[in-house]
Specification:
glutamate dehydrogenase (NAD+) activity, NAD(P)-bd_dom_sf, six-stranded mixed β-sheet, 13 strands, oxidoreductase, alpha/beta, Glutamate dehydrogenase, globular, Rossmann fold, seven-stranded mixed β-sheet
């Protein structure tokens, strides 16, 4: 059964159960991982510029911290569809992602049910500072670290950090990552890291299947931070990026686009729709006859309703949860490899870890070093998943989650249960 409307947490639990069936892990650990350690729900009052008062609901899901503090890769989300189940599901995926990358973090997720497009900059600042106030007792550099996500960016997390620091009585940059780089000491290379990791894993996957990256045609749904950086890196390696899209428009040119000449949505909204190339819809982009499809926008775009029309030979997930459980199964039956999000887009949380190392040592790495270290970590994770996958009978997603579960299970066994 497909459930294009299935919640993130329902999908995450299905994936957990399927992967767990392939490995030797205590059933009690699996039962525990179906639920968050904590779910914080808060009311966030907001006075708009016209003086009217509204109250919004915010959430902070803290899934598991057996390997380290709760962490968001793409984190603080302002979106009308945010709810508790979405935050729990995304926090579960972050737990797997950190374990796959062998990082000393667990998974967390925060969000507010609001449309940020309806808010002025001044209102967003007041809103963000109040959210930090509401969460002050559950976050912190050694407890729970946030980052920007849909509807937020470096400025919002800078406000969040400042509000938290004021509450603590000392500057505490480690409570968030992906702050403005040159102003508050964030690591270089953080903004482009998720897209860069998608590109690195895409290239590794083509090598695994004996494809030549220079012969590959690629369609990328979403031309925000992830899609833009993925497209530019793959194009630089010789791949043909033939289609990209924004929210309301897609472009397609079989002769290849020039991502370097196109500004991403974060740089200039609606740039794609103004580019001189044949138009497509977002839905049509998913069904183009290309070698590699990279959904990098939102979740649940590949479903049982459209999976039979998808003609790509490989899917690499740039967004979180773009493939439903049922669509995943159909791709497997058809022999279409799906490289899962918790591996492919793990660059963000990995550079967050690098940022923490730089904070501890009070020394900033060069951009070149960040890129080199990220590639090393991504390929190390790719090799771990490949080893688990080969000859196992598992899907790539099962193998990826299995790597994570083995590491989490080992940590829980060593730490034991506090009674």
């Amino acid at each position: 059964m497909d459930v294009a409307a299935e919640s993130a947490v329902a999908t995450a639990r299905r994936q957990l159960g399927q992967a767990a069936a392939h490995i030797d892990i205590d059933g009690g650990v699996i039962d525990r991982l179906k639920y968050p350690t904590k779910l914080q729900q808060v009311s966030v009052p907001l006075r708009r510029d016209d003086g009217t008062l509204e109250v919004f609901t915010g959430y902070r899901a803290q899934h598991d911290d057996v390997r380290g503090p709760y962490k968001e890769g793409g984190g603080l989300r302002y979106h009308p569809d945010v709810d508790a189940e979405e935050c729990i599901g995304l926090s579960m995926w972050m737990t797997w992602k950190c374990a796959v990358m062998d990082l000393p973090f667990g998974g967390g997720k925060a969000g507010i049910t609001v449309d940020p497009k309806t808010l002025s900059d001044g209102v967003v600042e007041r809103f963000t500072r109040r959210f930090a106030e509401e969460l002050r007792d559950v976050v912190g550099p050694k407890r729970d670290v946030s980052a920007p996500d849909m509807g937020t960016g470096p400025q919002e997390v800078a406000w969040f950090m400042d509000a938290y620091s004021m509450q603590q009585g000392e500057t505490t940059p480690g409570v968030v990552t992906r702050k403005p780089t040159r102003v508050i000491g964030e690591s270089y290379g953080h903004e482009e890291a998720p897209g860069r990791s998608v590109a690195i894993v895409t290239r590794a996957a083509t090598e695994y299947y004996d494809w030549n990256i220079e012969d590959a045609t690629i369609a990328i749904q979403g031309f925000g931070s992830v899609g833009t950086n993925t497209a530019r890196l793959l194009d630089g390696w010789g791949a043909d990026v033939v289609a990209v899209s924004e929210v309301d428009s897609a472009i397609y040119d079989l002769d290849g686009l020039n991502p370097e000449s196109m500004e991403g949505h974060d740089e200039q909204p609606d740039m794609v729709s103004g580019y001189n190339a044949p138009r497509r819809t977002n839905a049509e982009l998913l069904e183009l006859d290309v070698d590699i499809l990279i959904p990098s926008a939102v979740g649940t775009v590949l479903t049982a309703e459209n999976v039979d029309n998808v003609r790509a030979d490989m899917i690499v997930e740039g967004a979180n949860g773009p493939t439903t459980f049922a669509a995943d199964a159909i791709f497997e039956e058809c022999g279409v490899p799906v490289i899962p999000d918790i591996l492919a887009n793990a660059g963000g949380v990995t550079v967050s870890y690098f940022d923490g190392l730089q904070d501890i040592n009070r020394r900033q790495w060069s951009l070149q070093r960040v890129h080199e270290e990220l590639e090393e970590e991504m390929l190390k994770a790719w090799d771990a998943v490949r080893t688990e996958y080969e000859g196992s009978g598992m899907t790539r997603r099962d193998a990826t989650i299995a790597v994570a579960l083995s590491r989490i299970g080992d940590a829980k066994e060593m730490r034991g249960l506090c009674l």
